[in-house]
Amino acid sequence: MPGPSIPAAIDAFLDPLRDAASCFGGAHFTLTPGARGDVGKTHAWTLNSGRPVQLGRDLFFTASMQFKTLDLGKPKKRHRFRVTTREYIYEVSARGKEVISAHWHPNSSSPYKEPHWHIGSAALAEFGVRLEHAHIPSPRVSFEGMIRFMIEQMGVAPHREDWSERLERTESVFETYKNW
Amino acid sequence: MTVTNASRSSSTVIELTVEQARSMFDERCREELGVSAAEFLARIESNDIPDEWPMDAVARLEILLPFAR
Hints:
The complex is a heterodimer.
Chain A: E1 2-3, H1 6-21, E2 28-31, E3 42-47, E4 53-56, E5 59-71, E6 81-94, E7 97-104, E8 116-119, E9 136-137, H2 143-154, H3 163-177
Antiparallel strand pairs in A: 1-6, 2-3, 3-5, 4-5, 5-6, 6-7, 7-8, 8-9
Helix pairs in contact in A: 1-3, 2-3
Chain B: E1 2-4, E2 12-15, H1 18-33, H2 37-45, H3 55-62
Antiparallel strand pairs in B: 1-2
């Protein structure tokens, strides 16, 4: 997401995510110190200081993302600063147990570096427990894509009538600027 | 702590101070694994992660490492 200044680039990065989060009632995006001023340093946001957000129907949502602001140089003018995603985790849980989560954490201690899904024990029948710690390969998952999945496939109630159009609009920004 | 109110949505952005960020990370470590942030960081840096630590909890904490540094 580009901007003429670092704060503008951060806003351009976060505003679509805030819009997307409003579809399930909204959340606090907690940012690391200095995120609005640093270039080239890895920062992060997490919803509600890392605590699960209640979605209703006994479901909870946890989301965190690492990102970095890049300086593309003065000639880029209004697009000089760009925020790029470094890692993400979006997790739906029920009664403290993971149901399903989308992960991409190439810089973590995990040996698995590609985007993947985890199917939690709360989503599995007894005979399917071998999948509990599996890394199921997936394409990159957007924050908006995860919210659409929760609403359309998991029965999470949207908090706005225009949730689908809103997610489509904010995800188009992500599709325009993603670089992999 | 800096709070930005979202006039067009119900989501807010809060940029923590260094102290608040470290406190939040320590709280998450204690809730997820029952250990302090200092112990978690030491284990991660020495690549000595106990087998009994759930992988999903470690992943949730590792992505929050920028809050601790």
